[in-house]
Each structure stands twice: as structure tokens, then as C-alpha cells.
Specification:
five-stranded parallel β-sheet; four-stranded parallel β-sheet; about 270 residues
Length: about 270
């Protein structure tokens, strides 16, 4: 039975673990998309998510067709766009600001709609990060997670992941930047005490001054639990939300941490397409 992938909280924890199990045995699905077409809507600025989805489709034997997401922003009712599109698409992957547009597409199509990032969340990225953490940390769901940054799609994505998987989550930020429903601490030095997984997001230029006391350094990371790791959301900027020395240290999970984005996104497609 086909199912769209819009929010992690649309699924039970066991359903999300099933995606991990598919990712573990992805080699068994080499022809899963043979003869199938996946239509993708990505802006030119997307790199990691688009490359891993496009390669994942290719490795599963499928065809991908790419459009800019502005193709969805036109006078034609999205229900009519979808009515025609599902004649040829076996799944649709969308990166678009408006999550409500993705929900309307899902309601209008008989094929899965997969959320590749909105202004509200980033479920594929969270799944890939948690899958990668499961290979590094024995008790990754018992770890305590801290997000350092403003309310936005990445912070909300981590809050959504915490709600779906049930792990401890809090935020360090100045007043006025809080994620709805999340526990927050305004002092970074206090917030990082007892934490295991430190996550960040980049700051718009007009927020940099407000977050000048929230930069993750090696010294700050040393206040966290022994063995704590730094997982900054790319693109990150040395000298802004993180320092260069902490990225060059053992605290940083490393660039290969994201390699599992490929197999996890393949797992999401396989699971959603039944």
C-alpha cells in the first residue's frame, strides 16, 4: 500500500524502523524501480539531497525527471497538475517552501509524495542522521540532543524527530527564537551540560549578532558529556555557528556521516511505494 512521506509524526516508530531495516538490506532491491519514473522538484541550489535521491533512483533501476519547484507555483490548481502527473509518475519528490502544498499533492495523487525539505521540516535528513547515529551510538535514542539555533525548518525537524522517536530534545537560543513546544535554555554553557548530540543550523545575516554567544567551539563541546558529538546541518559556516577548530576536531561527525542519506532515501522510496 502506497503512502506519502510528509512528516515523521505521520508514522509509528516501528514503521520508521522498517525504513532503517530496508536501508540495511538495500542491495536486495537493485531492480525495485525498474520501469518506473520518479518526478523530482528541486531548486538549482540543492546539492546533497538531490544528488543522493537521483543516484538512489538510478541504482534502483529507475528513471528520474527533474523540474524546478517554481513549476508548481502557477495559476493551474495543484489538484489538476497532480491529476495529470500521476498518469506517468510512480512517485513524486518535492522540495518546496510550503508543506501545505505537499499535503494537497498527497491528497490529490494515488502515488507517494516525498518531502525533500519545506520551511517546516526536513524528514529525509532527520531519518538519515538518526540512521547514521544508530551505527555510531549504541543508545542513540537514549542520548540527549541539543539544538543550537533559531526556530526554523531544521530545528523544527529535530523537534519532529524527537516526537516521532521519543528521544530527549532541547534548544539553546536567545529569547524570541524558540521552537514551539520545545524546552529551551538561554545560556549555551548551561544548555550543553549533560548533552550527547549537538546539532546546529546556519544563521541568516540579520541573526548573526543575536547568536554571537551561541557559537560552538571546542571549549563549549568539552562541557558536554564524554563522547559527545557535533552534527552541524550543512551547509555550515566556519566562524559563524561553528568554529573552524571544532570542525577539524574529533567532535565533528565528519563528511562521511551523510553518506547514508543515499540508502535511507532509497529505503524511504521503497517503503512508500510498497
Amino acid at each position: 500500500m502506497m503512502k506519502s512521506f510528509i512528516r515523521l509524526t505521520d508514522f509509528t516508530k516501528e514503521e520508521l524502523f522498517e525504513i532503517f531495516r530496508i536501508a540495511d538490506s538495500i542491495e536486495e532491491y537493485s531492480d525495485f524501480l525498474k520501469g518506473k519514473t520518479v518526478v523530482m522538484f528541486f531548486p538549482a541550489s540543492s546539492i546533497r539531497t538531490r544528488v543522493s535521491f537521483e543516484k538512489g533512483i538510478y541504482l534502483l533501476g529507475g528513471q528520474s525527471i527533474l523540474f524546478d519547484p517554481t513549476a508548481l507555483d502557477k495559476k493551474e490548481d495543484i489538484r489538476d497538475v497532480c491529476g495529470y502527473l500521476q498518469n506517468w509518475a510512480d512517485a513524486v519528490i518535492v522540495r518546496h517552501k510550503d508543506i501545505h502544498l505537499l499535503q494537497k499533492m498527497s491528497e490529490s495523487m494515488k502515488v507517494p509524495v516525498i518531502n525533500a525539505l519545506t520551511d517546516d521540516n526536513h524528514p529525509c535528513e532527520m531519518m538519515a542522521d538518526l540512521y547514521a547515529l544508530s551505527k555510531k551510538r549504541t543508545d542513540y535514542l537514549k542520548d540527549r540532543y541539543l539544538f543550537v539555533g533559531a526556530d526554523g525548518n531544521i530545528g523544527r525537524a529535530w523537534k519532529e524527530a524527537a516526537d516521532a522517536f521519543g528521544f530527549s530534545f532541547s534548544q539553546a537560543c536567545p529569547d524570541g527564537y524558540c521552537i514551539p513546544g520545545a524546552e529551551y535554555v538561554s545560556s549555551l554553557e548551561d544548555a550543553i551540560l549533560g548533552k550527547d548530540i549537538i546539532c546546529t543550523d546556519s544563521h541568516p545575516k540579520d541573526e548573526l549578532d543575536d547568536f554571537k554567544d551561541y557559537q560552538i567551539t571546542r571549549e563549549i563541546m568539552s562541557l558536554a558529556n564524554a563522547g559527545a558529538i557535533l552534527n552541524p546541518c550543512p551547509p555550515f559556516y566556519r566562524g559563524e555557528e561553528v568554529t573552524g577548530d571544532v570542525i577539524d576536531s574529533d567532535f565533528f561527525v565528519g563528511y562521511d556521516f551523510k553518506k547514508d542519506l543515499l540508502r535511507v532515501q532509497q529505503g524511504i522510496m521503497i517503503y512508500c511505494m510498497g
